[in-house]
């Protein structure tokens, strides 16, 4: 007697990934308040530092040119932080149980969150740059410099989003994921984002010089203002690639371990 076993054909190509990217984008559009806050908060900080603290820091009035690269990375951080909450929500609401019954790669869920976050944050970054131009930001970057700037920003967004996605997997609840992500948002303040590193206390200078945010900011600042990039670009790329690799491996392990128990 022959026993027939039903098999589920696996989705081919990137069908699963494109489906989850579309799902995450739809969630982003529906959660318009989160998208607005990811743009409004950095713009408010830029206005505060430019018009309230700017003259005290740089009486010449050129502080806006200095602070914009840091504001751009703050914008990326605020936007990517929501990924941790979204991933944690998926892991704790039972939707993963339904996904596991489908013939798809488990990584497609995380890919959807990460790619949608990248698109969402690039849009928010463009809005922040436009607002900076309205308040007096005057970069001297060429077209190729702008392309390089958005390449560095995209790489940084990809790195921090993968890290936030892994944090969302590790957290026990969406509230916990939000709290852990909030800690990472302080990193730009301990960098060259708002003041030169050499103006900090000596013990803090070492931290600012040896964390990933500073070379990314210095690379973006040099490209926008037409100053030498030096070796900061290689450090920025190296940091971002290392974070992506570590977060992707950590996230894949967490997803298999947690989703497998459900």
From TrEMBL:
Transmembrane segments: 34-54, 66-87, 108-137, 143-165, 177-197, 233-255
Keyword Transport tagged: yes
Protein family membership: Belongs to the ABC-2 integral membrane protein family.
Domain ABC transmembrane type-2 stretches: 33-258
Domain of life of the organism encoding this protein: Bacteria
UniProt keyword Disulfide bond, yes or no: no
UniProt name for this protein: Transport permease protein
Short name of any one Pfam family annotated for the protein: ABC2_membrane
Subcellular location: Cell membrane; Membrane
Organism of this sequence: Agromyces neolithicus
InterPro entries assigned to the protein according to its UniProt record, in alphabetical order: ABC2_TM, ABC2_TM_bact-type, ABC_2_transport, Nod_factor_ABC_transporter
Keywords (A to Z) from UniProt: Antibiotic resistance, Cell membrane, Membrane, Transmembrane, Transmembrane helix, Transport
Bilayer topology term: Multi-pass membrane protein
């Amino acid at each position: 007697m022959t026993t027939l076993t039903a098999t589920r054909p696996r989705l081919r190509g990137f069908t699963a990934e494109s489906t989850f990217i579309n799902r995450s984008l739809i969630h982003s559009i529906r959660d318009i308040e989160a998208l607005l806050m990811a743009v409004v908060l950095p713009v408010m900080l830029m206005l505060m530092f430019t018009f309230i603290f700017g003259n005290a820091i740089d009486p010449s009035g050129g502080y806006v040119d200095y602070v914009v690269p840091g504001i751009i990375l703050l914008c990326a951080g605020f936007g990517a932080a929501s990924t941790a909450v979204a991933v944690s929500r998926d892991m704790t609401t039972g939707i993963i149980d339904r996904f596991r019954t489908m013939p798809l790669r488990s990584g497609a869920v995380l890919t959807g969150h990460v790619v949608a976050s990248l698109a969402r944050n690039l849009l928010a970054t463009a809005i922040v740059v436009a607002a900076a131009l309205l308040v007096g930001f005057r970069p001297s970057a060429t077209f190729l410099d702008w392309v390089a700037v958005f390449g560095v920003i995209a790489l940084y967004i990809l790195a921090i989003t993968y890290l936030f996605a892994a944090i969302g997997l590790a957290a026990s609840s969406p509230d916990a994921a939000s709290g852990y992500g909030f800690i990472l948002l302080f990193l730009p303040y301990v960098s060259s984002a708002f003041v030169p590193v050499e103006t900090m206390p000596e013990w803090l200078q070492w931290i600012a010089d040896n964390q990933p945010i500073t070379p990314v900011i210095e690379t973006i600042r040099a490209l926008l203002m037409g100053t030498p990039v030096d070796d900061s670009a290689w450090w920025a790329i190296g940091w971002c690639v290392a974070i992506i690799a570590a977060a992707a491996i950590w996230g894949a392990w967490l997803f298999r371990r947690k989703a497998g128990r459900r």
